[in-house]
C-alpha cells in the first residue's frame, strides 16, 4: 500500500514533487491532501491531482488519512513544521535548506527521534548514479588520497524574485543562491568528502538590485585535511559541477550525467550516465524508509552539519576571515 501524504506548500516546487510520483505505479507514495498559503492559486491544480485542500497546516496534520507530510515551504518555517509533524506522529520529508540554524536543526531531529518517525531531507543529487560512481572511485583508490574538492551550482533564478515573494526576502535567502541552489552542493561536498571544519566566504551583489547577493564564493577545509572551493551565482547561466582531485587521479561530474576521469598514469575515461528523475527517487526512498525498508540515505547528523556549514558561512561572509564550523 502506498504511503498517503500531504503536500505542504503548492508553489512551483511543491507541484514538481507531487507530479513526480502522483499516479505512477510503484512509487510507493501517493498525495491525498495538502495546504498552501495561497489556496486560491492552487485550488484547480489540487483538484486535478486529487488532493483535499485543507485551510491550514494544522488541519492537514489532523487529517486521519495522512501518514506523512512533504514540506515545500519557506525555509524559516521548516523547524517548527517538522516538530509539529513529529508530535502528530507523521513522517516528514522536508525541502532544503533543512533549517537556518544548527540549534533549530538539532531540535527538529530530536523531535523526530523522540516520536519515532522518519525524517528525510530533499538533497536529491545524492540519488544520481554518477554520484554513486564518484563514491566508488573514492573507496577503491582510483582517486587516491583526496586533496581538493571543487563545487559549483549557479543559475539565473534570483532575477525573477520580486518584492513580496518570500524568496526575495534576504532573511530567507542569505548569501544569494545558497538557499535555492548552493546548499545542494554543500551537501554533495559533505557526502563525498566528509565534514567541513572551517570556511571563509565572500558574498556580494554585482548585478542584482533586488537586495540579494548574486555572487557567493567559499574556501573551506574539511576535517580530513583536504581543501575545497565552492561558488553559487544567482544571476548566471545554469551550471552544475563537482570535481575531486586526489593523489592518484581526478574526476569531474558536470550536469549530473557527464563524468570524466583522469588517472595519474594510463588512459582516462569519459562516461555519460542515463538521466534519472531525482525527485521521484528521493520520494520513493522516503516512502521505503517509512515502510521499514532501507534507511533514507542522508543521516540526520549530516543534515544538521549541512545547516551548521550554511550558518557559519553567513557569519564568515559578514565578518571576514576563516570561521570554524561547530
UniProtKB/TrEMBL annotation:
Extract the InterPro entries matched here. Answer: Gfo/Idh/MocA-like_OxRdtase_N, Gfo/Idh/MocA_oxidrdct_glycsds, GFO_IDH_MocA-like_dom, NAD(P)-bd_dom_sf
Keyword line: Oxidoreductase
List, for all copies, the residue spans of the domain called GFO/IDH/MocA-like oxidoreductase.
Answer: 132-251
> Cross-referenced Pfam families, in alphabetical order?
GFO_IDH_MocA (PF01408), GFO_IDH_MocA_C3 (PF22725)
Q: Where is the Gfo/Idh/MocA-like oxidoreductase N-terminal domain?
A: 4-123
What does the record give under GO molecular function? nucleotide binding; oxidoreductase activity
The identity of this protein, by name, is: Oxidoreductase
What is the organism field in this record?
Teichococcus rhizosphaerae
Amino acid at each position: 500500500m502506498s504511503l498517503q501524504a500531504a503536500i505542504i506548500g503548492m508553489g512551483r516546487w511543491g507541484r514538481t514533487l507531487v507530479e513526480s510520483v502522483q499516479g505512477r505505479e510503484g512509487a510507493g507514495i501517493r498525495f491525498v491532501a495538502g495546504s498552501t498559503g495561497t489556496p486560491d492559486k492552487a485550488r484547480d491544480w489540487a483538484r486535478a491531482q486529487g488532493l483535499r485542500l485543507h485551510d491550514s497546516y494544522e488541519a492537514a496534520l489532523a487529517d486521519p488519512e495522512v501518514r506523512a507530510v512533504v514540506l515545500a515551504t519557506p525555509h524559516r518555517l521548516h523547524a517548527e513544521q517538522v516538530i509539529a509533524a513529529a508530535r502528530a506522529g507523521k513522517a516528514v520529508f522536508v525541502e532544503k535548506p533543512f533549517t537556518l540554524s544548527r540549534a533549530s536543526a538539532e531540535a527538529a531531529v530530536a523531535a523526530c527521534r523522540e516520536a519515532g518517525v522518519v525524517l528525510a531531507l530533499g538533497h536529491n543529487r545524492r540519488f544520481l548514479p554518477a554520484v554513486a560512481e564518484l563514491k566508488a572511485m573514492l573507496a577503491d583508490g582510483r582517486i587516491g588520497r583526496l586533496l581538493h574538492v571543487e563545487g559549483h551550482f549557479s543559475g539565473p533564478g534570483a532575477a525573477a524574485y520580486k518584492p513580496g515573494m518570500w524568496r526575495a526576502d534576504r532573511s530567507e535567502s542569505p548569501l544569494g543562491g545558497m538557499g535555492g541552489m548552493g546548499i545542494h552542493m554543500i551537501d554533495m561536498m559533505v557526502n563525498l568528502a566528509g565534514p567541513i571544519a572551517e570556511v571563509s566566504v565572500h558574498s556580494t551583489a554585482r548585478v542584482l538590485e533586488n537586495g540579494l547577493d548574486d555572487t557567493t564564493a567559499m574556501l573551506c577545509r574539511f576535517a580530513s585535511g583536504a581543501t575545497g572551493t565552492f561558488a553559487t551565482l544567482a544571476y548566471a547561466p545554469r551550471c552544475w559541477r563537482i570535481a575531486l582531485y586526489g593523489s592518484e587521479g581526478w574526476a569531474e561530474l558536470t550536469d549530473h550525467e557527464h563524468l570524466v576521469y583522469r588517472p595519474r598514469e594510463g588512459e582516462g575515461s569519459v562516461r555519460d550516465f542515463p538521466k534519472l528523475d531525482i525527485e521521484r527517487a528521493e520520494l520513493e526512498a522516503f516512502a521505503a524508509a517509512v515502510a521499514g525498508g532501507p534507511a533514507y540515505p542522508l543521516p540526520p547528523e549530516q543534515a544538521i552539519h549541512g545547516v551548521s556549514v550554511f550558518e557559519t558561512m553567513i557569519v564568515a561572509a559578514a565578518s571576514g576571515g576563516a570561521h570554524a564550523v561547530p
